[in-house]
Amino acid sequence: MHASLSDEASISVFGRRRRSRRADRLSEPLADRAFARASGAPLVEGNSVRLLKDASENYHAWLEAIAGARRTIHFEMYIVHEDEQGAIFANALVRKAGDGVCVRLLYDWMGGFGKTSHAFWRRLRQGGVDVRCYNPPRFDHPLAWLSRDHRKAIIVDGRVAFVMGLCVGQTWVGDPARHRDPWRDTGIELRGPAVADVEAAFADAWASAGGTLSAEALVDPPPAAGQVAVRVVATLPAAGGLLRVDQLVAALARKTLWLTDAYYGGTASYVQALSAAARDGVDVRLLVPGASDLPVVRNLSRAGYRPLLEAGVRIFEWNGSMIHAKTAVADGRWARVGSTNLNVASWVGNRELDVIIENVAFARQVEDMFLADLENATEILLEGNHVRAPAGSPHRDHPERGGTGSSGRMMAGALRVGRAVGAAITQTRALGPAEANVALAGAILVGVLAALAFIYPRGVAYPVGVFAAWCALALADHAIRMMVRHRRRKSSAPQMQARDARQAP
After folding, report:
1. Closest CA to 10 of 187, 162, 194
2. Which of 34, 227, 271, 406 counts the most CB atoms within 10 A of its CB?
3. For the chain, what is the total number of helices (H) and then of strands (E)?
4. Rounded distance, CA 59 to CA 69, Å?
5. Model-wide pTM > 0.90
C-alpha cells in the first residue's frame, strides 16, 4: 500500500499543527486521512528510527542516553522491578539527579504492586528523582483501577526518545545460572521532530498524576534527524484510537499483515477484520507466547484461535520463555512498535504509547525480525474439530485438548460459552452445530446460577449491596464537591467583575 498525509490532517493529539510533504507511505491520500483521524496523530517527517531487539540492545541504549543527559530525563514505565536491573536503572537516575539533571519518573500503581517496595521509591526520591505514581486506589473512584498507564517510554533532553514493550526487570535479561532465558521484546530509538510528541504524551500522563511541567521543561521539536515519517499514537482510556488503526490496517493490507502480541485477546470486530483480510488473500500471521507469565490470558488467547484458523489466519506460538513484543508490519511498508496489546484492556482501558513508522527500509527490518522469530515458534493447526500443535512440538497438549490443566480448560470453555450465549441471546449471527451445543451448556450453567441465587440470596445480595453502597458514596462525594465548587465560583463572580471594572482603562 502507499500513503501520504494531507496538510488538512496534520493535527497533533495535543493540538500542535505541522505540515507534511509527500513521502513513501502506506496508503493513498484518502486512506492516509483516515489514518490521521483514527489515530489522532499527525504524520511527522524528518526522523531517524532504530529498531532495538531485546534487553541486550534496549537497556544498553537507554543507559547510554541517560548517562549523556544534560537537562531532563523523563522516565515513564509500567513496571520497574526491584531486582538487579531495577537497581542499575535506579542508580543511573539518582546519579544524574545528583549532577543537576531534572529527572522525573512515572510508574503505574498496579504494575508496581508486589514488585517494588516503598523503600525503593523512597531512595529515588531522596536521591533527587521526582517520582509519581499513576492512579493509586482511591475511595472516591471505585472503578478507577481499571485504567492503567501501560506505557513504556524514556525521553532524554527532548532530543532522543525510546518507545517499547519492555519494562525494567531481570526477566528481560534472563538468568543463565538458573537456566532462565531472557524475554523476547522489541523497542525503538527515535530522533527528530517526533520526539516532541513523545514528550508531550509524557507531560499529559504526568499531569494526570498530579504533576506539572513548566514551559522550560518542554522544548521545541528537535531538528530533522533523518528521512523517516512516523506517527506517535498516545492513546487515552476509552478513546480506542489504536483499535481503529489496527482495524484500518487489516482492511487496507493487500499482501501481508504480520502481528506479534504478548497477550492477544481480539474483540469480535478485530477477529472479523483479520478473518476478512485472510479470506481476501492477505497473508495474515499472528505470533503469540507458547508459555506466558499470565496463564489465564494465554488460555483466553487460545480459546479464540478457531475462528482465525478457519478463516486462514496462520497462528504461531513462541517456543521460548516468553515473547512480550507488541509489533505489526503490513505490506513491507508500514510498521508499529509500542506498548499496546491486541486486547480490550490495551485498546480501551489503558494509556498506551506506540509509534507507527511508514518507511520501507524499517518495515523490512521488522519483517526480517518476525521471520527470524518464527524459526523458534510452532504453528498451530486446525485438524478436523481440534485446534492443536503438530506432533512432537512443545505445545502439542493444547488447552482445547485438555493438556494444560483444569483452570486452562475452564477458562477456554467459559470464553466459548460466553460468545455462543451472547450470539444466541442477541440473535446477531447464526450458530453452528458445535456452538449450539455450547449455547445449551451455557443455558444450563446460567440456570444453575439462577437457582443458587434463589437458594442462597444473601450470598449474592451482600457483595452486590456492598459494592453498590461504595459507588453511591463515591458519587455523592463527587456531587457535593461539584456543588461546593459551583457555589464558590458563583459567590466570587461579583468580586471578580468589580476587580475587572477597576482595572479597566
Report:
1. 194
2. 34
3. 15, 16
4. 15
5. no
C-alpha–C-alpha distance, residues 159 and 69, integer Å: 10
* Contacts (Cβ under 8 Å, ≥6 apart) of 153: 74, 76, 77, 161, 162, 163, 164, 198, 201, 202, 353
Burial annotation 414-429 (CB, 10 A radius, 16+ → b, else e):
ebbbebbbebbeeeee
Asked if residues 240 and 347 have their Cβ atoms less than 8 Å apart, the reply is yes
Domain 47-223 coded CATH 3.30.870.10:
yes
**pLDDT per residue over 304-340, tens digit each?**
898 999 999 999 999 998 999 999 999 999 999 999 9
Instruction: Return the number of other C-beta atoms located less than 10 Å from residue 503's C-beta.
Output: 7
Query: b/e string for 85-100 if b means 16 or more Cβ within 10 A?
Result: bbeebbebbbbbbeee
- Picking from 277, 279, 241, 230, the residue whose alpha carbon sits closest to that of residue 257 is 277
Which helix (DSSP H) or strand (DSSP E) does residue 491 occupy? helix 457-503
CA distances from 403 to 149, 395, 398, 434 (A): 35, 9, 5, 21
State the DSSP H helix or E strand holding residue 152, giving kind and residue range, or none if neither.
strand 152-156
Query: Is there a contact between 257 and 54 (Cβ–Cβ < 8 Å)?
Result: no
CATH code linked to domain 236-335+358-402:
3.30.870.10
User: Residue 194 has which C-alpha cell?
Assistant: 517526533
Q: How far apart are alpha carbons 346 and 148 in whole angstroms?
A: 9
Short-list 224, 231, 214, CA closest to 72: 214
pLDDT digits (tens, 9 = 90+) for 3-27: 433 333 333 333 343 434 444 455 4
Percentages (nearest 5) of helix, strand, coil residues in the chain? 45, 20, 30
Question: What is the residue type of 484?
Answer: V
Q: Please report, for the chain, the start and end positions of each structural domain, with discontinuous segments joined by +.
A: 1-42, 47-223, 236-335+358-402, 405-455, 457-505
Tell me the pLDDT band of 358, cut-offs 50, 70 and 90: very high
